[in-house]
Amino acid sequence: MKMADKAIKYSAKGVDFAPGVKGFSAKAVEIKSPFSGRPEAHKYQHDLYVVISGTAKVKTGELSGEIKEISDGEYRSDEMIVEEEHVLQIGDSLLIPTGVGHSLIVESGTYSQWVFKIDKQ
Fold it and tell me: N or C: which end of the chain has fewer CB within 10 A?
């Protein structure tokens, strides 16, 4: 039984989300402190963060204020009603379901993670 055409390698040196199989893409990002990302939410994709190195905070909740759709299903705002705060360190992962607002904060050092985009089914 054939499951897939071939194995797919993702490289941390990639510059944008690399497609592999339908409904899945990935990229590695490195963020230097101080950094505080704008709150965002996705309508069609879950985000899965997998920490490579460093420490970051991810605030999750509901976007509020003026919410703009910057591309199909991609929303940004300058405000968010924070419901949870997650501290991420090497070896941790965080799944952010579609519709959940999230913002990444790096207070010191350099933080690296894989971001996997998984289409909502």
Answer: N
Gap between the Cα atoms of 50 and 110, Å rounded: 15
Task: Check: CB of residue 94 under 8 Å from CB of residue 49.
Answer: yes
Whether the CB-CB separation of 112 and 28 falls below 8 Å is answered with: yes
Look at residue 3 in the predicted model and tell me its pLDDT.
55
**What is the C-alpha separation between 17 and 117, in angstroms, rounded?**
8
pTM above the 0.85 mark?
A: yes
Residue appearing with tokens 């996705």: 42
Q: What is the DSSP letter of 1?
A: -
C-alpha count within 13 angstroms, C-beta hemisphere, residue 111: 24
Task: For the beta carbon of residue 31, count every other beta carbon within 10 angstroms.
Answer: 17
pLDDT for 37 equals 97
Token look-up 């990639």 returns 14
Evaluated on CA atoms 36, 40, 44, 48, the torsion sign reads: positive
35: tokens are 């950094």
Cis bond upstream, residue 19 (ω within 30): no
